[in-house]
Design brief:
Helices cover 82% and strands 0% of the residues. The protein contains four helices and no strands. Helix 2 crosses helix 4 and helix 3 crosses helix 4. It is elongated and about 50 Å long. The N and C termini lie far apart (32 Å).
Length: 78
């Protein structure tokens, strides 16, 4: 019984974190939202994302890096 309760609490905490990250993601510029969503929510690799968005891989890596940095900053504000 205690193990079930702990598992539920852990799942709730993960859900709350996910909601916070998603909320922070929505505050980023669209170009950063797109690359982060494709990479981490849809599981695309850099080559696939570059093709989908018609970008070269260097530009994509830069957008992804900057987007993740901004996302971390937003998440640390919570």
């Amino acid at each position: 019984m205690e193990q079930d309760r702990e598992a539920m609490e852990s799942e709730l905490q993960q859900h709350e974190q996910f909601v916070k990250v998603l909320g922070a993601l929505k505050t980023l510029p669209e170009k950063h939202q797109e690359v982060i969503a494709l990479r981490y929510f849809e599981g695309k690799n850099n080559r696939e994302i570059a093709e989908i968005l018609n970008l070269n891989e260097g530009t994509l890596k830069s957008l992804l890096s900057r987007g993740l940095e901004k996302l971390r900053e937003k998440c640390n504000q919570f």
